[in-house]
Amino acid sequence: MGILSDGEATAPPLLAPAEKPRFPSSLTMSMAEAAQLMSGRYCHIVGILGAPDAGKTASIASLFMLLARDKLSGFHFADSRTIRALNEISQGARRWNDGAPPEQMTSHTKLADDREAGFLHLRLRSKDGEAFDFLLPDLPGEWSDTLIDRNRTDRLNFLKAADAVWIMADGRQLASLESRLTTLRRLDLLLARAATFMNRPVPVFLVLSHRDSGEPNARDIEELKASAARKGIDLAVVSIASFRRRGGLTAAGFGIADLISETLGAPRQPPKLWPDIDQSLEARSILRYTSMRRAR
């Protein structure tokens, strides 16, 4: 005689799912998810602009890998709501072929929804124990190109709530005689477009990538800073090397910690209580206002 009597049916311990579980189509945070996070804590939104291959994604990957190895001077990793997205963009930097680094350290950014930005979240903790939340958009360089060429801004409304903006530039192109003038001209146009669109004082950093390959002409940078000042921008310059090239002497991650420290140290402008922008959660300044009060 068995444990169950004849005719007694046994229910399955677990019901089979109707379909296989699937991960979200995007591993980054949506505008709505970012706004929800901001409603509970202060988050530093950083706008990151720059041409394709300027080093935007590589800088984020380098930041994440420094944190993963506890090598970011002055800071430790505390948390991330987008850990899988950060891991995904840094995969290229961890692939090696016969001991040689890959030709391209990070993949070209492609968004699941090309109508709005996706955000990467990082929570850092300084050595004195203070926590800082960052929201970093990983945008295709083509968005900056269309901002320059056609003044397209509909996908960049989050910039109106940014605490700081990084304008990324490939230092090699600025040092090259063939590309120097074109790169400088487009950087100047990008600064002009961004200043007009944001229409408020925002700390802006010119982030020169590939420091390991040399430095641009100092006079060119000073002229670009002077032009930015005429547009109302106090342009700070930070040089970085996200990765070390073969035979290079500059350490991987050079300048990243300085960029984070200077971004945190930049003065913040209080947001408008009733901003003249839409309420689509792209730049919910009222939520940021609440978060700022909680952070005091």
UniProtKB/TrEMBL annotation:
Record-linked Pfam families: DO-GTPase2 (PF19993)
InterPro entries: DO-GTPase2 (IPR045528), P-loop_NTPase (IPR027417)
Region (Disordered): 1-20
Coiled-coil residue spans: none
Domain Double-GTPase: 45-262
Cross-referenced SUPFAM superfamilies: P-loop containing nucleoside triphosphate hydrolases
Superkingdom, natural source: Bacteria
Official protein name in the record: Double-GTPase 2 domain-containing protein
Species annotation: Methylovirgula ligni
